[in-house]
């Protein structure tokens, strides 16, 4: 079945450091890929997405590129801020018989220290 | 600007008690779903609905019941709570157009003693 494997956390970085959170996936067909973010006390919200191979999703300084050859969708940011502290979830979606199914990774908790 | 509204935010139950988690959305979304979030497990789909009157089971449906009488509301019922149902529950909705973009509520933290 479909699955998403994320880098285990927690991850602690200093402000302005470079961030990478690894994500790899297993899926049949051609999934769309997503990063969701969950700030403390809130529900998840979509951060960025990519729908086909070599697409780059970007938002709020975060980027991720859909790499079909390595089945990866790593999240990167060049200079993190304290406000980026959150839990990040990698996810994929597939469509079978007209029904879309989202599969989430286990989440990576990121803490940024001033 | 309500989006997806869940109530209650916190609830403590005793084993065997029943309760309903409420979920309402004001975006006219056809697709609604319930997830549970447990440490180290990510989000797991409990039940979902693709429109009023239509519901289906997700990955972990046992012990939960749902109905969808209107487009706006999608309540989740626990008929006889068990400690294994201690979790954070999220309701989500989407336009159902295969965008993969779910809009989540703020979550309901349930503790079963």
Tell me briefly what this model is:
The complex is a heterodimer of chains A (114) and B (113). Chain A has strands at 3-6, 11-14, 19-21, 23-26, 32-38, 44-50, 56-59, 62-65, 75-77, 86-96, 99-104, 108-113.
Mind explaining what this structure looks like?
The complex is a heterodimer of chains A (114) and B (113). Chain A is an all-beta fold and 114 residues long. Helix content of chain A is 0%, strand content 55%. Chain A has no helices and 12 strands. In chain A, a hairpin with a 2-residue loop joins strand 7 (56-59) and strand 8. Chain B is built from no helices and 11 strands. In chain B, strand 5 and strand 6 form a beta hairpin. By secondary structure, chain B is mostly beta strands. At the A-B interface, strand 5, strand 6, strand 10 and strand 11 of A face strand 5 and strand 10 of B.
Comma- or semicolon-separated keywords:
heterodimer, A: mainly beta, 0% helix, 55% strand, globular, B: mainly beta, seven-stranded mixed β-sheet
Oligomer: heterodimer
* Quantity of strands of chain B, as a count: 11
State the helicity of chain B in percent bands: under 10%
What kind of sheet is the major sheet of chain A?
A: 6 strands, mixed
Q: Name the poorly predicted regions of chain A.
A: none
Q: Shape of chain B from CA axes?
A: globular
Radius of gyration of chain B using CA atoms only: 13 Å
**How many helices of chain A does DSSP assign?**
0
**Helix-strand category of chain A:** mainly beta
**Percent of residues in beta strands of chain A:** over 45%
N-C termini distance of chain B: 35 Å
Main pleated sheet of chain B: 7 strands, mixed
What integer value in Å does the Rg of chain A equal? 14 Å
Q: Quick one: which chains have the greatest interface?
A: A-B, 23 and 20 residues
Q: Helicity range of the residues of chain A?
A: under 10%
Overall mean pLDDT of chain B stands at 92
Question: How far apart are the first and last residues' alpha carbons of chain A, in Å?
Answer: 41 Å
Give the amount of beta strand of chain B, in percent. Answer: over 45%
């Amino acid at each position: 079945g479909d699955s998403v494997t994320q880098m285990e956390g927690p991850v602690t970085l200093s402000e302005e450091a470079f961030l990478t959170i690894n994500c790899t996936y297993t899926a049949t067909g051609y999934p769309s890929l997503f990063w969701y973010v969950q700030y403390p006390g809130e529900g998840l919200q979509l951060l960025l997405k990519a729908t086909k191979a070599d697409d780059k999703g970007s938002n709020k300084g975060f980027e991720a590129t859909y790499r079909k050859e390595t089945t990866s969708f790593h999240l990167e940011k060049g200079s993190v801020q304290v406000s980026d502290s959150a839990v990040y979830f990698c996810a994929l979606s597939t469509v079978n018989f007209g029904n879309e199914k989202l599969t989430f990774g286990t989440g990576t908790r990121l803490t940024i220290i001033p | 600007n309500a989006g997806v509204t869940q109530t209650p935010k916190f609830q403590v139950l005793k084993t065997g008690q029943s309760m309903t988690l409420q979920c309402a959305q004001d975006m006219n979304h056809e697709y609604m779903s319930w997830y549970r979030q447990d440490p180290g497990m990510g989000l797991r789909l409990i039940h979902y609905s693709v429109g009023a009157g239509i519901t289906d089971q997700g990955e972990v449906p046992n012990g939960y019941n749902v109905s969808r009488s209107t487009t706006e509301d999608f309540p989740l019922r626990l008929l006889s709570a068990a400690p294994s149902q201690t979790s954070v529950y999220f309701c989500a909705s989407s336009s159902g157009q295969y965008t993969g973009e779910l809009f989540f509520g703020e979550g309901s933290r349930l503790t079963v003693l």
